């Protein structure tokens, strides 16, 4: 592959922003670079800043072959139907490819020489500056920035990561609006010297909630603490017309942000600070904001800092929107992308969220399920049952809201660790980190272990097997006690199937199948996981190991709750389905007449699921998807259209489904492999398959309609292929 760098050097070399630099040199640059140059040309001070043109990015991806990889991973990526796991998977693969790709020698040499000449070893902020940034579809956090980067080696690493963030999961959500086409898209980069500021902040020249106001916030130390909510701020609300301070909120800051060994760290102040800006400094910030708004002709969101009593503008971007509609159900909106952007959480936010989930949310869900279970539904009058249906529907709605607001965002802990692991270890497989998360005490595994123990008891006792096959249930003894334990803990977790109506016999049908299965899988524990963990910590500097251990512990909790939270929600759903069953019985026996809204609720919860259909075998002999769990297996296909179809699964079948949730994974020990239409390494089928060591392929487009029931297939969980036999 050619390592030559196309184009003249000015297309790939950093250019220093100065009053001598004509604006047309940055005509194709992103808004951040053009904005800073405009400020500088109008005597508003900025730190020493250089802009790396988009040409450097294009030279890198073309010379390294990354352009072809980008096209392969993004071509045909239907963002309308893909879930967040699938989009994040694609972006993580892209990021890891950038991380592992070396700079072409000529480009590396040229960049290293100019970076050394401009900045030497001074600490830098490396910021994204894509041409489409700060436009109508701009959102904070679409692309990456890195702080306290020093020297050629660190700068080149940061450049690759900023370039990769052009294809972040957040940016991919707005791929169409941002014009993300591998053949034409590009990322410029700003390299800005960090000024040793003793105070910093932001100014909205026009308030986001009230256009007659200007908002100024200030914090001690370096910028960044305000955006991350890490430092308590001083806040001014100023009348735009008169300049009078209408509201002032004193700071209670006890810490400030300073440069650390890597990035920034919070250090304690000798005493809490109430007043950060004096009146003269506030007026300087306001005047800078007014001038910037006049220069750009629109309200500005600016970041500023005072260093040795001199005011610097760090960046300025237009305020592209003001009051946005508020809703507590963004995930239910037609455009779910704003909700998706909210999933990204800081480490501190995730730690607080974990505390709330472990000590409040999950215990309250479990307690409420137990309370509802104690209600004697057959003893209720028709009016009482009417109220009970409405009450349980409301409670289910409440917990589903909590699930979307708190439980799904907590999965970001997995992502946080994944990026840390890949940036530290640089593995060939971008999902190698999941091996450090497997083996946690998942509720689904505990449930399946109890089922397996029941199956072993049946397999070892022919008399017990024959009694169960004849529908004779022992009332005493070890098996009866074990069955009672299972029913009390997990018997209600499949109430979307007929288990609720069959009592213990729904469970025992699975137990009998497991007992006779020669293919029953047990969970796997690998020494490799311990080896990878040791490798990871050896690659982390001694100063950061405690923090890295906390990130890993958080990720393991995220991984566990990623599966467990569905089972807790399943208990609430079970209580709701139980009251619907009671209401249906009374309607069918003409004991109660229900109003229309209750009748609507009484429709079978699975009535709208896709049912079996006539399926034509795919015209290709091999289908492909994402390899989510390694291994090779072959067997007859069993297509699952609804939870009821799980009872048709036989030992050694290849399970094909649209989506497998944790309430359905009790069947996994029987199957030879899993194929799922929904994609991602973090979907429930992938998590449970890795625990049992069976092959799993996700993201197989239209799997349930392209693979006929009963067809013999071979599943390659290493390559992600399904071959018709």
Automatic annotation (TrEMBL):
Residues 28-327 form the Pyruvate phosphate dikinase AMP/ATP-binding domain. The lineage of its organism: Bacteria, Pseudomonadati, Thermodesulfobacteriota, Desulfovibrionia, Desulfovibrionales. It comes from Desulfohalobium retbaense (strain ATCC 49708 / DSM 5692 / JCM 16813 / HR100). It catalyses: pyruvate + ATP + H2O = phosphoenolpyruvate + AMP + phosphate + 2 H(+). Pathway: Carbohydrate biosynthesis; gluconeogenesis. Keywords: ATP-binding, Kinase, Magnesium, Metal-binding, Nucleotide-binding, Pyruvate, Transferase. Residues 650-720 form the PEP-utilising enzyme mobile domain. It is an enzyme of class 2 (transferase). Catalyzes the phosphorylation of pyruvate to phosphoenolpyruvate. InterPro entries: ATP_grasp_subdomain_1, PEP-util_enz_mobile_dom, PEP_synth, Phosphohistidine_dom_sf, PPDK_AMP/ATP-bd. One of its GO terms (molecular function) is ATP binding. The keyword Nucleotide-binding applies. Coiled coil: none annotated. Gene3D superfamilies: ATP-grasp fold, A domain (3.30.1490.20), ATP-grasp fold, B domain (3.30.470.20), Phosphohistidine domain (3.50.30.10). This is Phosphoenolpyruvate synthase. Its EC number is 2.7.9.2. Belongs to the PEP-utilizing enzyme family. Its cofactor is Mg(2+). PANTHER family: PHOSPHOENOLPYRUVATE SYNTHASE. The keyword Ubl conjugation does not apply. Pfam families: PEP-utilizers (PF00391), PPDK_N (PF01326).
């Amino acid at each position: 592959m050619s390592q030559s760098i196309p184009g003249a050097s000015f297309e790939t070399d950093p250019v220093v922003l100065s009053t001598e630099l004509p604006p047309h040199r940055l005509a194709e640059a992103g808004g951040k670079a053009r904005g800073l140059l405009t400020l500088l040309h109008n005597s508003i001070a900025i730190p020493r800043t250089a802009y790396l043109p988009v040409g450097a990015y294009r030279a890198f991806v073309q010379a390294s072959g990354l352009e072809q990889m980008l096209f392969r991973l993004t071509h045909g990526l239907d963002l309308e139907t893909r879930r967040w796991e699938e989009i994040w998977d694609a972006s993580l693969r892209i990021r890891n490819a950038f991380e592992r790709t070396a700079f072409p020698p000529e480009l590396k040499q040229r960049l290293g020489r100019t970076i050394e000449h401009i900045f030497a070893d001074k600490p830098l902020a490396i910021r994204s500056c894509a041409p489409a940034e700060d436009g109508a579809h701009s959102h904070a956090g679409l692309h990456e920035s890195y702080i306290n980067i020093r020297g050629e080696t660190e700068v080149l690493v940061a450049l690759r990561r900023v370039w990769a963030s052009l294809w972040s999961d957040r940016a991919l959500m707005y791929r169409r609006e941002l014009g993300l086409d591998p053949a034409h898209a590009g990322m410029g980069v700003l390299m800005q010297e960090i000024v040793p500021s003793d105070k910093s902040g932001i100014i909205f020249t026009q308030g986001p909630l009230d256009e007659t106001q200007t908002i100024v916030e200030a914090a001690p130390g370096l910028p960044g603490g305000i955006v991350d909510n890490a430092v308590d701020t001083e806040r001014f609300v100023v009348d735009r017309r008169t300049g009078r301070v209408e509201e002032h909120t004193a700071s209670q800051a006890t810490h400030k942000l300073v440069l650390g060994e890597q990035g920034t760290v919070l250090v304690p102040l000798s005493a809490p600070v109430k007043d950060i800006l004096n009146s003269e400094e506030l007026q300087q910030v306001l005047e800078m904001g007014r001038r910037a708004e006049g220069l750009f002709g629109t309200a500005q969101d600016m970041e500023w800092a005072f260093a040795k009593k001199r005011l610097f503008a760090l960046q300025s971007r237009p305020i592209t929107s003001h009051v946005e509609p508020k809703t507590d159900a963004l995930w239910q909106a037609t455009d779910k992308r704003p909700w998706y952007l909210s999933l990204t959480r800081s480490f501190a936010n995730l730690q607080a969220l974990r505390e709330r989930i472990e000590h409040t949310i999950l215990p309250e869900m479990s307690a409420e399920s137990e309370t509802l279970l104690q209600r004697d539904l057959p003893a209720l009058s028709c009016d009482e049952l009417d109220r009970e249906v409405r009450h349980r529907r409301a409670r289910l709605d409440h917990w589903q809201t909590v699930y979307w607001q708190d439980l799904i965002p907590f999965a970001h802990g997995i992502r946080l660790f994944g990026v840390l692991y890949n940036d530290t270890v640089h593995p060939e497989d971008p999902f190698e980190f999941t091996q450090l998360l497997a083996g946690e005490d998942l509720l689904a595994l505990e449930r399946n272990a109890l089922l397996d123990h029941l199956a072993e008891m049946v397999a070892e006792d022919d008399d017990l097997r024959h009694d169960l096959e004849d529908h004779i249930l022992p009332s005493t003894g070890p098996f009866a006690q074990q069955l009672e334990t299972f029913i009390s803990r997990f018997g209600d977790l499949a109430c979307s199937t007929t288990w609720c109506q069959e009592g213990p016999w729904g469970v025992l049908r699975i137990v009998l199948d497991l007992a006779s299965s020669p293919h029953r899988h047990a969970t796997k524990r690998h020494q490799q996981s311990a080896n990878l963990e040791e490798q990871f910590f050896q690659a982390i500097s001694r100063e950061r190991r405690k923090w890295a251990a906390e990130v890993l512990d958080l990720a393991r909790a995220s991984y566990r709750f990623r599966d467990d939270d569905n089972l807790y929600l399943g208990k609430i759903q079970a209580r709701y389905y139980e009251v619907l069953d009671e209401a249906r019985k009374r309607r069918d026996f003409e004991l109660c007449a229900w109003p229309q809204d209750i009748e609507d609720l009484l429709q079978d919860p699975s009535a709208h699921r896709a049912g079996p259909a006539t399926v034509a075998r795919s015209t290709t002999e091999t289908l492909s998807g994402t390899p989510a769990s390694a291994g090779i297996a072959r067997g007859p296909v069993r297509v699952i259209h609804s939870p009821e179809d799980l009872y048709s699964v036989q030992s050694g079948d290849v399970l094909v489904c649209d989506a497998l949730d944790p309430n359905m994974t009790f069947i996994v020990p029987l199957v030879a492999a899993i194929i799922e239409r929904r994609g991602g390494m973090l979907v429930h089928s992938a998590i449970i398959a890795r625990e049992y060591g069976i092959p799993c392929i996700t993201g197989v487009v239209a799997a349930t309609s392209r693979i006929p029931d009963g067809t013999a297939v071979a599943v390659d969980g290493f390559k992600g292929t399904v071959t018709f036999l």
